Amino acid sequence: MEQKDLEYLSLEDWRQWHIELLQATLTRLYQRVPFYRESLEAAGLLPEDLAVPEDLSRFPPTTRKDLAEHYPYELFAVPLREIVRLHVFPWHPNPIVKGYTRQDLEALRGLTVRFLSAAGLRSDDILYIALEPGMAVWIEDLKEGAEVLGATVIPPSPRRPETDLRIMKDFRASVLATTPSLARRFLRVSERLGLPLPRSLRLLLLLGEPVSPRDRALLEEVFGVQTLVAYGIAEILGPGMAYECERRQGLHLAADHLYPEVVDPETGRTAPEGELLLTTLRVRANPLLRFRTGDRVRLLREKCPCGRTTPRLEILEPGYEERWSFRGVKIYRQALEGLLRETYGHLPEYRFRTAEDPEEEPLLEIRMNEDLFRPSIVALHEEAHRFERAFREFFGLPCRVKWVEA
Ligand SMILES: [Zn+2]
């Protein structure tokens, strides 16, 4: 069956399909990943304890902390030689690593192609990608997916937003894939410098962070385009993971690759609205069981007016995980605090915030205390720069440090 047709299976077929794939996944995890075998045994469970998809709720979840703690390759279900690509995400003290086999990459490409076709990308389109280097996985996916469809792709590189605007205009970009905050940044820059927005654009693919209805309406009006939203999680899948169809009534989840659950994060019980947990169904290298995404969602299970029967996600804000997002790149509290400790030898009292204005850098206010007090202004500046540099190297983003009096 074509990947595209799978999205139209009957609900009964979906159920049967999920039972088979979940059983295969659990068996694979149990046999191949010691971490999962131990956690299943600790919970007194065996793969055959799953008879229906609802039984999955008895199985232990996986957290980002688990991924970092089992660095570098304890969570791989295949030998290292079968892994053909590794993506690394900032975490502290260990990074989080995700491996892909050749088969994983093919599946991923298929999903991105399906998403881009659903969004209406054609071979005569010119796709301009404007994403921060911290979203390397997404850049890679989009590039490969669009190339399969025969579109012309202009991938990002470090350049000023005014240069982006100019290239989009000169090369008549028709589709722009970016984050909502970078799209707003383009608006700002175009206003500030009196540069016209590229009129060749017909579609804006908004990725990486939620967009408010107000911002969405603004972007559509000022750019004079349609917008479609897609959602992915770097540790699992890129933008082919969930995306809007032309009806724009929630994001269709790639249910042929992922099994979703929504639970109350406090009790772990199934709830209509709550934290999204995802179990991978066909991943070879790094399968994940009930991965806690930290995102708050509502799951719509009924058939969409577009005809697709895949469950749809409505992403709600704020999520559950302690994190910030800057231009679509996520900054987790745990990683930030690890970096502060590493830089200053202890965790100072601090306040971190990202501004509403996409042109403004994130601000870190650190309370001065005896450990951090440096008698001269020069020394204080140097201490601030030390962290700003560390932050840039770690997250690939700018940050401004400000001292506040104790
Ligand atoms: Zn639909």
Automatic annotation (TrEMBL):
Residues 149-275 form the AMP-dependent synthetase/ligase domain. Gene3D superfamilies: N-terminal domain of ligase-like (3.40.50.12780). It comes from Thermosulfurimonas marina. Pfam families: AMP-binding (PF00501). GO terms for molecular function: ligase activity. The lineage of its organism: Bacteria, Pseudomonadati, Thermodesulfobacteriota, Thermodesulfobacteria, Thermodesulfobacteriales. This is Phenylacetate--CoA ligase. PANTHER family: BLR5969 PROTEIN (PTHR43845). InterPro entries: AMP-dep_synth/lig_dom, ANL_N_sf. Keywords: Ligase.
